[in-house]
Amino acid sequence: MNLFTPFTLGSIQCQNRIGMAAMSRQRCDNKEMIPTQMMKQYYMQRCTAGFIITEGLPLSLDSIAQDGSSAIFNIKQADAWAQIVQELHTKGCKIIAQLWHCGRVTNKINNPLAPSAIKIKNSKYNQPKEMSIDDIQQVIKQYLECSKLIQYAGFDGIEIQASSGYLLDSFLKSSANKRNDNYGGSVQNRCRIILEIIDQLQTVFEPQKLGVKISPITRQYDSYDPNPKELYKYLLEQLNVRNIGFIEIRDDDYPENWLDFGYPSSKSDIANVFEFCRPLFKGCIIGNGKVTPEIGDELIKKHFCDAISFGRLFTSNPDLVDKIKNGDKLNEVDNSTLLSQGPKGYIY
Ligand SMILES: Cc1cc2nc3c(=O)[nH]c(=O)nc-3n(C[C@H](O)[C@H](O)[C@H](O)COP(=O)(O)O)c2cc1C
Description:
With 348 residues, the protein is of the alpha/beta class. It has one domain: TIM Barrel (Alpha-Beta Barrel), CATH 3.20.20.70. It has helices spanning 37-44, 75-90, 133-152, 167-172, 187-201, 228-241, 255-259, 273-277, 293-301, 312-316, 320-326; strands at residues 7-9, 12-14, 18-20, 51-58, 94-100, 113-114, 129-130, 157-162, 210-214, 246-250, 284-288, 307-310. Strands 3-4-5-8-9-10-11-12 form an 8-stranded parallel β-barrel, surrounded by 4 helices. Helix 3 runs parallel beside helix 5 and helix 5 runs parallel beside helix 6. It is globular, with a radius of gyration of 19 Å. The protein starts with 6 loop residues before the first strand and ends in a 22-residue tail after the last helix. Residues 21-25, 55-56, 98, 100, 161, 163-164, 213, 250, 288-290, 310-313, 338-339 line the site of flavin mononucleotide.
């Protein structure tokens, strides 16, 4: 078994085990947040992947981290996504929509939503407001409404972004969540919003087509938990109860993401995050986070992961799958065009 062995991600049949990770490339150049022809070209150029996870799609105008995002909260956006989905399907590539709420990681919104009114330490981001129960219910409803449009557009599945310091990660981790109602405090309470979202999405998509992205050791944007083992053990147990198809685990090799903000190293809590999660989750595991093709192959051979999602390598190597297959040299990542505008570093 290796990166090229076909497999089923939950119930999504994929031609290989190489996925493209979600990446907001900020190339959507219209205010309506409708995916453009250039974006379609971008995704099509990477269609040899077994599966593509879309850029994070904000749920609403209240959940946008940056300009240049596309979305799927109205029918016009969904119609444009449907064209991308259809074309990818003609090439045998599967596409999963990532639903994303930026939480407190934004400058575009005054008083953005967060579990608690805690600003990200030493950051330029706006002071958030603590979400009311109504706010929470509203966000859960937005996930449901978007999921109906995602189904209408023909996507193969949905990934909930619960990693990297954005809204749902900040609910999970106690440095950012100081609530004393049903959504804060105990591990059970901090996981509640994610599980309630999943319960709603299951009314639209079968659970095997749903996944969650997590980052147990990353404390990006100051979301940190001193007891990650207990937290993720409970979360994964609950995802099993709901028969969720997959999780994507973001590892982190950026020391600033596991040593920063004055917390102890999270690598000392969980040295190998894939090995830690494997026995806890019965669905598929997608490994992510500066995984090289060689490490990816090894993770699959050892059964720690079922598939690997590559982010940055796909930006500079649209033909990544063929290059790995042929053992060709990979192009270096061009950091200057990751989040720039226009076709440079985006389409080839
Ligand atoms: C330009 C850029 C944009 C990103 N946008 C998202 C996003 O929208 N949603 C998400 O979950 N992760 C996002 N990420 C993180 C990637 O999905 C991935 O977790 C990270 O880059 C580590 O994988 P890699 O080392 O293979 O790049 C982004 C990363 C980059 C470089």
